[in-house]
């Protein structure tokens, strides 16, 4: 039985993960990737997030990213590695993270004792992450920890994000949700990305979205208006609960007081980043 309050690990993840994710929305990443010859935004994203795995092809990325149309991935991989090696891409991503955090948080926060404390806590939590059946986490765990606290915090958030993310994919498989069904049902919770954003960035067509909705209705998970039924709500709850169980170790290792403090610090940084325009305003919702 866990010594943590219910969903404490999930709350901590939700405080850290969005700040980590800002780099993938950031113009700094586009600028750094263009500087090494990768100008297409989709190619930049696939390369930047998968580079820790090495010069992988579209199959590996489709498996580990889960919710992208494999056809979109195949337009850019493995060709992108002819332009820039994974090592070059990882260096560009770290420069982008540095620029993004400095821009969103400000130099005073970047140099603060609080950010250094958050980095120490997040790295301590990540010590208990496990590699088995977690390819994206395991690949990032092989990377060196940056020396500057704000980058160490971003690196630790990466480890914790991908550790939970790999577990989440296992939970989706257990629930019988394919990539697009996972997206449709998540959007139906009111917490996922907007359909127009998904269609614009994940490579799916409206017909694919409609077909996934139809499959979910046949299973009794969506109603005629596209909202989750009670059964659908319960299934999404099971997905998150199973993810929590598979992602418990780092937060148990950190302990209740450490998790509470890291969550508090992470939320403060996140509020600052949101106020600085970290995310596109139309990325979330059901519209």
Question: Helix amount, in percent?
Answer: 55-70%
How much strand? Answer: under 5%
Poorly predicted ranges: none
Q: Could you give the count of β-strands?
A: 0
Q: Helical segment tally?
A: 17
Produce a short descriptive summary.
This protein is 69% helix and 0% strand.
Which keywords apply here?
mainly alpha; 287 residues; 17 helices; globular
Describe this structure in words.
The protein is mostly helical. Helix content is 69%, strand content 0%. The protein has helices at 8-25, 27-35, 41-50, 58-65, 70-74, 80-83, 86-105, 107-110, 113-126, 135-141, 149-175, 179-188, 195-201, 206-218, 230-246, 249-254, 256-275. Helix 1 (8-25) crosses helix 11, helix 9 packs across helix 17 and helix 10 (135-141) runs antiparallel to helix 11 (149-175). The chain is globular. It starts with 7 loop residues before the first helix and ends in a 12-residue tail after the last helix.
Which helices and strands, and how do they pair?
Elements (H helix, E strand, L loop, with lengths): L7 H18 L1 H9 L5 H10 L7 H8 L4 H5 L5 H4 L2 H20 L1 H4 L2 H14 L8 H7 L7 H27 L3 H10 L6 H7 L4 H13 L11 H17 L2 H6 L1 H20 L12
């Amino acid at each position: 039985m866990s010594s943590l309050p219910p969903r404490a690990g999930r709350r901590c993840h939700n405080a850290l993960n969005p700040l980590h994710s800002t780099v993938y929305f950031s113009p700094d990443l586009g600028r750094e990737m263009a500087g090494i010859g990768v100008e297409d935004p989709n190619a930049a994203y696939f390369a930047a997030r998968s580079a820790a795995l090495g010069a992988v092809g579209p199959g590996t990325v489709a498996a580990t990213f889960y919710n992208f149309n494999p056809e979109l991935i195949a337009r850019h991989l493995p060709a992108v590695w002819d332009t820039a090696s994974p090592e070059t891409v990882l260096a560009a991503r770290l420069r982008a993270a540095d620029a993004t955090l400095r821009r969103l948080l400000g130099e005073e926060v970047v140099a603060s004792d609080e950010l250094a404390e958050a980095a120490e806590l997040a790295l301590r939590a990540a010590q208990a992450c496990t590699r088995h059946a977690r390819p994206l986490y395991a690949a990032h765990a092989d990377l060196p920890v940056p020396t500057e606290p704000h980058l160490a915090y971003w690196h630790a958030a990466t480890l914790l994000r991908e550790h939970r993310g790999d577990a989440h994919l296992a939970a989706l498989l257990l629930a019988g949700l394919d990539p697009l069904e996972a997206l449709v049902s998540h959007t139906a919770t009111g917490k996922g990305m907007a359909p127009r954003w998904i269609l614009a960035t994940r490579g799916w067509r409206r017909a694919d979205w409609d077909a996934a909705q139809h499959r979910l209705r046949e299973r009794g998970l969506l109603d005629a208006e596209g909202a989750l039924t009670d059964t659908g709500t319960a299934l999404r709850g099971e997905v998150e609960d199973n993810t929590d169980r598979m992602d418990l170790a780092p937060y148990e290792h950190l302990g209740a007081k450490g998790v509470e403090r890291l969550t508090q610090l992470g939320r403060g940084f996140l509020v600052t980043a949101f106020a600085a325009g970290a995310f596109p305003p139309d990325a979330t919702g059901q519209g």
